[in-house]
Amino acid sequence: MAKGPKYRVPFRRRREGKTNYHRRLRLIQSRRNRLVVRCSNKHTIVQVVESKIEGDKMLSQAHSQQLAKQFDWNYNLGNLPSAYLTGYLCGLRSKKAGIDDAIVDVGILVHDNRVKAAVKGFLDVGINVPVDESWFFNDWENRIKGVHIAEYAQKLKKENSSEYKKKYSAVLKNKGDPTKIDKDFEIMVKEMEKKV
User: Fold this and answer.
1) What does the pLDDT average to over 24-34?
2) How many other CB atoms are there within 10 angstroms of residue 18's CB atom?
């Protein structure tokens, strides 16, 4: 570790690689609502936050667990379709709360594509968020809907059914069909629009 009279120990969250304080300061100084997207290995959290002197105030939020509990989403909560749906749910709630614009706060990117999927879901509701379209990757629509997951599940089911049952055991236990995730995705979007 560095020593000397001019050495300063960085803040704990900076040392842990969790917070970039320079970027956070610029976001707060913009005085706009922040669209905060955080992903863990199993879940996605999307929040619209207003920065205040006394602390951040959450205006709306969505957690990927709410997809399973409130909307009967039978698939993995840590994949691209689930991240998109979480962002879409937060966007619907934000629109209902009267929020019309926000600025993206992705923190220190770890799960890059899931963060982008959640932001895309929020954008598709129609809330103004300044994001360059080149930030999203090419085959975007199919990957968000889970077409790549359905194709792989169909291939695996034909070639090795025991491996298919092992790999998708949690989905099959919840009475989901991984070969039809793209069709269930479309149904889920319509159901969210009705319920929220």
Assistant:
1) 87
2) 13
Residue 172 domain-assigned (yes or no): yes
Quickly state the pLDDT bin for 60 (edges 50, 70, 90): very high
Give pTM, 2 decimals.
Answer: 0.88
Kindly tell me if the per-residue pLDDT of 1 is higher than 70: no
Query: Per the structure, how many domains does the chain have?
Result: 1
Expressed as residue numbers, the domain containing 111 is 17-195
Burial class (CB in 10 A: 0-12, 13-18, 19+), 100: exposed
**Residue type for position 152:** Y
d(CA 100, CA 126): 8
Contacts 24+ apart (CB under 8 A), 92-98: 92/125, 92/192, 92/193, 92/196, 93/60, 93/61, 93/62, 93/196, 94/48, 94/59, 94/60, 94/122, 94/125, 94/127, 95/125, 95/126, 95/127, 96/196, 97/59, 97/60
pLDDT at 15: 86
